[in-house]
Amino acid sequence: MTRIRAALLDMDGTIFDSKIDLGAVRRVLGLPRDGRSFLEQLSDLPRETQDKGMAMLVEAEARGAADGVLLPGAEELIESLRAHGVRCALVTNNSRASADTVLRRHPLPFDLVLTRDDGAAKPNPGIFSVALARLGATGREALAIGDAHLDLLAAYRAGVAEIILVSPPPWVLDFIPEDIPHRRAADLREAQGIAESLLG
């Protein structure tokens, strides 16, 4: 079995609860929940509406980063991965500003942080490919941990060998492809157990 050398972790909904309600922002803009990322949906709108939507997103992210909470088990999961010699990257569709705020409040020991300011947002696999290259690992040597179909799709398209989805929101379940192999965890403690079993 190929040794896992890198772990790519999502932020919002996976290790951090920002309490952002993107559904409310979508409703204001008249955007459906159609499985596409909020950023992809925005790109289809007129420029004036795009600017309004991005401003709403940035405001919500700033508020969430300042007021949100680390999810139980986040620190233990990352400590466990690092204890097994696994390099860890935070790969998020959030802005660099919001990720930096979260990590100032909760200084988790990531080896790398990539945000939407560093490349195309998930489900585009590009940012995962960049993370793997910078961590010195191939997809076959990697583990991805997220909470949504966007994480699953990006990881799969980047060739990541093992994918764990942690407590996906009910609405996300309709958009998870049945033919993409992955594991499910109810919370981060269960995800840690799965990761440790994969690491041997």
Please explain how this structure is put together:
It is a single chain. With 200 residues, this protein is α/β, with parallel strands linked by helices. The chain folds into two domains: 6-18 and 69-199, Rossmann fold, CATH 3.40.50.1000; 22-67, no CATH class. The chain has helices spanning 22-29, 38-43, 47-67, 74-83, 96-105, 126-135, 149-157, 188-199, and strands at residues 6-9, 16-17, 69-70, 87-91, 112-114, 142-146, 162-166, 183-185. It has a six-stranded parallel β-sheet, sandwiched between helices. Strands 2-3 form a two-stranded antiparallel ribbon. Helix 5 links the parallel strand 4 and strand 5. Helix 1 runs antiparallel to helix 3. The chain is globular. The termini are close together.
Oligomer: single chain
| Helix/strand order, N-terminal first | EEHHHEHEHEHEHEEH
Q: How is the largest sheet built, in terms of strand order?
A: 5-4-1-6-7-8
Query: How large is the count of helical segments?
Result: 8
CATH superfamily of the largest domain: HAD superfamily/HAD-like
Shape descriptor: globular
The CATH class of the largest domain is identified as Alpha Beta
CA-atom Rg in angstroms:
16 Å
According to CATH, what is the topology of the largest domain? Answer: Rossmann fold
Report the helical percentage: 40-55%
**Low-confidence spans: pLDDT under 50, at least 5 residues?**
none
Strand content: 5-15%
Q: Which architecture of the largest domain does the CATH hierarchy give at level 2? A: 3-Layer(aba) Sandwich
Average per-residue pLDDT, rounded, comes to: 96
Mind summarizing the main beta sheet? Answer: 6 strands, parallel
